Amino acid sequence: MHAPGSSCSQKTRIFLNLKGIPWESHVVDLRSAANYEPWYLGINPRGLVPCLVHDGAVHIESNDIIEYLEEAFPEPALIPVDRRGRVHELLRMEDELHRYLRILTFRYVIPTRPGAMKSEDALERLRNHDGTISGQVDSRKQDEIRFWEAANREGIADGQVSESIIRFRSAVGDLNSALNDSEFILGCELSVVDIAWYVYASRLIAAGYPVHRWHVHVGAWYDRLDARPEFRAEVSLPPA
Q: What is the value of pTM for the model shown?
């Protein structure tokens, strides 16, 4: 289950494309808050996409899905065996930036006025659903609720935007250094880290962040990946 404009869904679809894994698509309409309907919350209590059901087991969170699929379908390898620890750490760092990507998305890519970020009905469904993750109360669900409640009250504040830009300028600057003399982020081979950051770079460019001007090596790397249909086809945003 996925959504066309979701950055995490885009990352997972590119991974599936490159691995050649057959999969069945179920689109979840985020605009109508279908991800907060009881049927979907029964599958993923966080109400987020993507979500994978494989061999009867449910897997949530894009990076967890990708690492699971790499184990289940090891060829072609997109997580080098000798770099698994490093890849896991880099994906964790990328995940920590997701909140800041969301801020820039809802300020510049899908601008939405305060009070209309997320319907109260949808939030109430999320609040009242008592699903657990691995049998535990899910603290991340509360983080989601707090984010949307604040966004509904105040919109996306200038201070949030400034912090997001500062964090991305630092993170993408580190990537720029890594790509100074390498074709890919981890060296000479394409990996899932390239997939994750390609999606982020695509969204940053859509938000007006000057990737090519501020980070020339990242810009050249992005253009090489963007020329590949397995990548480009998955990051096209739906109409506003």
A: 0.93
